[in-house]
């Protein structure tokens, strides 16, 4: 029995979370959920969208999965996602991007992985005003953070029988910060010669991912580039409603749907729960439940391939519940 923290989130979060739980239960995996709430609704009660007891629950159980959470705009609250990553030192953001037969897309046979550094770069939030004239953000890149994210990428490549790691950067312009990241990646590559290594300037990476995404395998990069390119890659295979995500550190791991909370369709049973279900598949593999993970992935693939029960964003008319039930039937 695994005890796992569940943060349903807000907007469509509770709906996709319920669908995910339904599918995991049908797979037969034994999980005890500790459900805690975070998001906009908690601000009035606790003065923050991320109460302390939520972080305590994650620390207690080590593993968590969360639905989408709204970050209030213009109200002075830090992103819940960024706060979790920094407080728990979840230095890896992992997003596998894979094509499914049956989902309409301009591309097929895509199977790449974005490994994004999660704790520094411009997302460290080091900013200040320059009078009334402007504002300045500091891009923080350190050797220890660069080293551990690239080492994770190589380890992931080895453990998942991948052949190539590509470091993405802008060292031709930011010679000190991105130069440090690139040089560190090259040093790590010298100790992992069984995996091919190359590097790519970020703007060229964006173009090449659109022209020929099939040629990429594991791509590792600083925080900002990872945020942008992972969303670009999601668009290649059907959108953010499909792609899973994981935030992984030395002691804790938080798995998440990377799409937004979509308040315009919240409570209507319309949302596509695939991203959170795929995140749960990643979570099961992380805790060693490979057989259950493989069963769910195979069932999901069959539902897509048949194309009879799809949510509206995928061209169908099924509800969130109907889609989850279709997967359960395959299980």
Automatic annotation (TrEMBL):
<protein>
    <submittedName>
        <fullName>Isocitrate dehydrogenase (NAD(+))</fullName>
        <ecNumber>1.1.1.41</ecNumber>
    </submittedName>
</protein>
<keyword id="KW-0520">NAD</keyword>
<comment type="similarity">
    <text>Belongs to the isocitrate and isopropylmalate dehydrogenases family.</text>
</comment>
<dbReference type="Pfam" id="PF00180">
    <property type="entry name" value="Iso_dh"/>
</dbReference>
<keyword id="KW-0479">Metal-binding</keyword>
<keyword id="KW-0809">Transit peptide</keyword>
<dbReference type="GO" id="GO:0004449">
    <property type="term" value="F:isocitrate dehydrogenase (NAD+) activity"/>
</dbReference>
<keyword id="KW-0560">Oxidoreductase</keyword>
<keyword id="KW-0460">Magnesium</keyword>
<feature type="domain" description="Isopropylmalate dehydrogenase-like">
    <location>
        <begin position="3"/>
        <end position="327"/>
    </location>
</feature>
<dbReference type="InterPro" id="IPR004434">
    <property type="entry name" value="Isocitrate_DH_NAD"/>
</dbReference>
<dbReference type="InterPro" id="IPR019818">
    <property type="entry name" value="IsoCit/isopropylmalate_DH_CS"/>
</dbReference>
<dbReference type="InterPro" id="IPR024084">
    <property type="entry name" value="IsoPropMal-DH-like_dom"/>
</dbReference>
